Amino acid sequence: MKKIVLYALFSGLIVVFLGLIVNSKESIEVSVDYGINEYFKMDTNGPFYISISNNGEDFEGFIELETGEKNTGTIYRQEMSFPKGTTREATFFIPVNIHLKEPVVIRVKNHQGEIITTTRYEINHQKVIENELAIGVLTDDPIASLNYFETTIALNESKRNTRLIEIDHTHLPVESVALESLDVLIINNYNTSILNNNQYDSMMEWVDNGGLLILGTGSSHNRTLSVFNDTDLPISIKGTQIITTDFNIHNFESIELESIKVVQEGFETVFDELITLIPRNDGQIILVAFDLEPLNHSEEKESFTNAFFSNQQDITPPDYILRTEHESIKNRLEGIFLIAPTAQMPSLYFLMFLLLVYAFLAGPITYKIVKKGNIRNWLWVIVPILSFVFVGVIYIYGKDTRISQPFINRVNFITLGEETGDVTSYISPISMKSQDLTLTFTNNDFPRMWHDTFTLYDGSVLEGISKNEGEKSVMTYEENNTIIHVKNINRFTPNIIETTEKVDASEQNLYVDIIYDGDYINGTITNELGYTIEDAFFWSKGLFANIGDIEEGVNEISEEVIVIIGSTTQHINEQLFPMELAISKDIKRYEKQTMRQRRDIIETMHFHKNFVPSNESRIIGFSNEKKDESDIEINNQIPIEHNVNVVIKNFDLDYNGGQVIQFPLQYFYPWVPLSSENPYASSLHDVRVLRNIKEQNIRFELDPAIEIIEIGFEIPTIEGQVFNPYEDFEGQVYIYNFGSEEYEAFDYKNETIKGGYLQEIIDDTHIFGEMNVKVITNQDTSSKDIVIPVIEVKGRRK
Fold first, then answer.
1. Could you report the per-residue pLDDT of 644-659, keeping only the tens digit for each?
2. Which sequence ranges are marked TM in the entry (predicted)?
3. Which residue, 70, 400, 538, 726, is most buried by CB atoms nearer than 10 A?
């Protein structure tokens, strides 16, 4: 017997010893690559590519990547097998934020949790792009030949520096999310046929999601365009030609270029018709008819760059703006998620009735029992029994209103195109008590999580609210699922997780056919979504109409349009959900909750730029839905899910069938160039004002699709709650004449601009016609905001 025990013990020691040999540090080699040629952009999801070479024996285990080693962070984990003599690869998408200032810790473990090897890897912080426009460049020319794209440009009312990132096909990722580190991608004189299908698809998906792809052509067009199919690039080329052009840029010295002859239909062209703009969902392909390298030899190259990017105002804003918006969205979402739409609560009046019944019955019943049974000594038993009975009645009656299991609140922002839709979901798993949560997502969801540490985008809001500082959330990537394990979540705390997906909208969509005649919108909206859209409204550049519910099928629309200037979301909310209804005793509690929730959602949409003046026309509405089974698991159980769908349908508005109308104030929005001394545009509830300055240049962008008949000036009236004192502008207005190249005084109170003078004061070389105005006042702008005039346009939509 002793021999058997000794033999078993000896065998066990051998197994342990061999395991240590198999899993020794020397048998494992770890290599790391990250970003796009090691470049990251703040507040995006950057890729880490990890390779593990096993020179020892086979073993099963996993790779871990930890951020924020010394602080609250996240552990990303992927399980895999490690056969002898093989190299395994794993890709993790890590939120780029302040946690990456610490080394990233990479561990290889076996299934027993034993660490085989640990590698600490520090990224190059000089290659973390912050507040700059990130421009990737694929070219076989020296990157210095495109250095004129690395400059300071005016973009989104701010001055932005650009950063060129040299890449080749080995750096171009196969996942579109990895391309988030780029705002712009330039391909010029590069053989794109070496790109594989996954790289091409990810590049096109990145464009769909808002990327700007610039294709330089000229004599090398066959190389640059070789990978693009006719669907993605619906143009044809009929040879090349030598041209001389100034790009229709004022004071630009002409240059000789070799240009392709582009044949296309329906796409807008700019810069002397040498640049074709091909929109794709939220992004754009810009086809340049010439090779971009020769411009490097022109003294006017920076003028071209500034003029080029001045037409691209939809590029990502600076990071500090994104962070401010991110924090504002998070605060709104927390308020939305705290309104848990559960079963309807019992009426307060009914509860008071039960209380009165108890008060009136408990005494007589007790008295009768005591008198009849002559058992006064049992009062201490009888009274509690009656109380327990009463509490039991309330408990049984309210059983459907109690929350006993974690549930999910979800807000889906559904933006519908013609054939596809983009869905951004904000998901909040909510627990009734402090406990560990394990959330299981399908890999198609690609969950990304928020937290409030440093108010930056990071691995998870969940670990940020964990009770014990230093505890890590663990995100495990399996073959079909992503599992997030969070320690000790605080009860009833909204935990925000974001997912994005593209959906097929070819059969389930909204079809809008309405006309704006200057006073009303009239027409039809056909709802084929399969559910009613509630509290719908129309919005287009300051025009608003309350539509109400859009039932399934064809809906006839005839609604008065009002103009909203200033405090946009406040006015929309008051039109849809007046405050007197929110406090009315006639409105049921759950209806008030729905109103409050939708008010917060509209505020959230403001930060998503749904109501900025440059927006196209859209129909927006809501739909609430309770799902008995979520597609997300919590602790291996399927929870109830409360959905709020926000449906956004963009469409081309018919302006009075092409007849002349008076466009509302603020339809042509006044853009204000910023300076380093004044990094924020001065505005008061979306109305431009003079604040601490007496002179201001203003740029009005005039839609080329509108034939302008007459332009006048008007001072907008600010409505809504205003805390700053303000007064109307009194002073001089000057209009820039592109013919004389001077600002000319204009009597804005008594005159209008029409006829030939329109051609002199509108620069039509940009995508948007440009009208430049200067205002000067002697009013006190230090103690009051001075509301500046805006243009009032009469014209027709072409």
1. 899 999 888 888 888 8
2. 348-367, 379-398
3. 538
